Every structure is written in structure tokens, then in C-alpha cells.
Amino acid sequence: MSVSPPTPSSDTAPEAVAHPRVIRTFVKRGGRTTTGQAKAFATLGPQYVLPYQETPLDAEVAFGAELAGTPLVLEIGFGMGDATAHIAALLPQTRFLCCEVHEPGVGALLKHMGEREIRNIRIVQHDAVEVLAHMLVPQALDGIHIFFPDPWHKKRHHKRRLIQPPLVAQLASRLKPGGYLHLATDWQPYAEQMLAVLSAEPTLRNTSSDPAGWAERPHYRPQTKFERRGLRLGHGVWDLVFTKR
After folding, report:
1. Is the pLDDT of residue 26 over 60?
2. Residues 150, 186, 210, 239: which is the catalytic one?
3. Which of 1, 31, 156, 233 has its CA 20 to 30 A from that of 51?
4. What's the rounded Cα separation, in Å, for the pair 15 and 146?
5. CB of 12 within 8 A of CB of 200?
6. Which pLDDT value is given to residue 234?
7. 3-state secondary structure of 124
8. 149 with 197: CB under 8 angstroms?
9. Is the pLDDT of residue 138 over 90?
10. 135 in helix, strand or coil?
């Protein structure tokens, strides 16, 4: 459920980390789907969960005439969907295409959507690397959200981190000029790698006026359980917002 990204040359990679042959946007994990999540999946899934396809997505058809022409934002790895539902409810005239492979998370987001009558989300239950490669054409997106991806703390696991130069180049290619890429993490070493990787991508520009390069948390992103956990552990939280040149 993934594709092999191109391997960058050593003089373009910001960090001397060996890249894996295959990058995935998820890690297999356990989890039980609750009765409420299963019910939401059964009742709302047919309408709001899109099948993975190896042909470009027609967003106008997928989201319907009511949202035609509105901005399209991709979210990679929404977990249990709390932040996704908050943002989509706050921005009802933005379309959110959300990738998550784990069924409890998909069910949880569908449950939020049903309870809050959120209609501007579509879910693809598939690895986002393949969604990017096959379902999204260049300059299809107005924005991309990746919040709190797995930091892979141990050095020998750094090669498994999602934010690597090949994927960032692909993400950037799917953004329209002026479109944005918003990342957030509560692990400083990963934040520093993210900043280095994004800064090295020539088609992206950092929007931050902070000399250190960090962005203020945008108004739409709520404080998540991961963020609260990080703050309790004494970690900071770092946001990065880059735009397509």
C-alpha cells in the first residue's frame, strides 16, 4: 500500500539519514472499533468514504455541486478525527480530503460528522502516498495538513519518518501556487528535521517572520490530545507553515 519515492542525492538531503526503499504514511497498530464507530461507518461510510482509485479524483463529483469550486485541503493521518472535525466545522466552505488507514479512526471521524452535521469531509481509507501518486494531479490542492506524525524517536528509526525530501517534493507538486503546507509536531528533533527538509525544497517558502522559522499556531488548528500530552511531558509544540512559490 505504498510507492517507492525517488532517492535524493546526498548534497540535497538536509540530514544524513538513509531513506527507506518505501515510505508509508502510517504504522500498523491495533485498536477496537466501538459500536458507535461501526454504526457511523455503516450509515455514513457509503456517502463519505471514497474508494481508493488509480485514476485522478474528480473533486467536483466527490464533494457535490454545493461545494463546487471551494478550496481543497488534504489531511494525512487524522487519527481519531477530533481536530479534523473541529477544522471542517470551522471552515464549512473548504473541502477536506482526509487519508487514514485505521478503521477505528475512520469510524470516529464519521461519528463526529454525523453528530455535528459536517458535510465538507471525504475520507480515503488508504495510504496517502498512493493517494498522492494516483488520485491527485499536480496543482490540485489549496492546502495540506500533517499534524503530529510519528516522530520515530530512536536514531535507527529516523529513516521511517514521514517528512523526507522525496515526499515533500511530491506534496509541493500537488499544491497550487500560493497553496500551503502546515505541519505540527511535539518532538523538537523532528521539528528541526521538518524545518530543514521544507527549507531545502526550492518550490516552498516559509511564511514565518520568526528568525527561528517556527509559525504561530493557526487559528483553525485546535490544541489536540497529542499537544496536551506533549505539554504535560514538558515538550514544546512546533508549527510550520510553508507556501508554494
Report:
1. no
2. 150
3. 31
4. 20
5. yes
6. 81
7. strand
8. no
9. yes
10. helix
What does the pLDDT look like over 76-105, one tens digit per residue? 999 999 999 999 999 999 999 999 999 999
Residue whose entry in the numeric block shows the C-alpha cell 491527485: 136
Q: Do the strands 204-206 and 238-244 form a parallel or antiparallel pair, or are they unpaired?
A: antiparallel
239 among known catalytic residues = no
Burial 93-129 (b: 16+ CB within 10 A, else e): ebbbbbbbbbbbbbbbbbbbbeeeebbbbbbbbbbbb
Q: Which three cell numbers stand for residue 97?
A: 480530503
Alpha helices by DSSP H, listed for the chain, are 35-48, 59-63, 82-90, 103-116, 128-130, 165-174, 188-200, 225-232
Query: How high is the pLDDT of residue 30?
Result: 52
Domains and CATH numbers, the chain: 33-69+91-128 (no CATH), 138-245 (3.40.50.150)
In sequence order, the β-bridge partners of residue 54 are none
Would you put residue 96 in left (φ > 0), alpha (ψ -120 to 50) or beta?
A: beta
All 3 cell numbers of residue 208? 514565518
Question: Which residue in the block uniquely carries the three cell numbers 500498523?
Answer: 28
Structure-block grid coordinates of residue 159: 529513516
Distance (Å, rounded) from C-alpha 196 to C-alpha 209? 16
Tens digits of per-residue pLDDT, 119-130?
999 999 999 999
Identity of the residue numbered 233:
L
Q: Say how far apart CA 154 and CA 142 lie, in whole Å.
A: 34
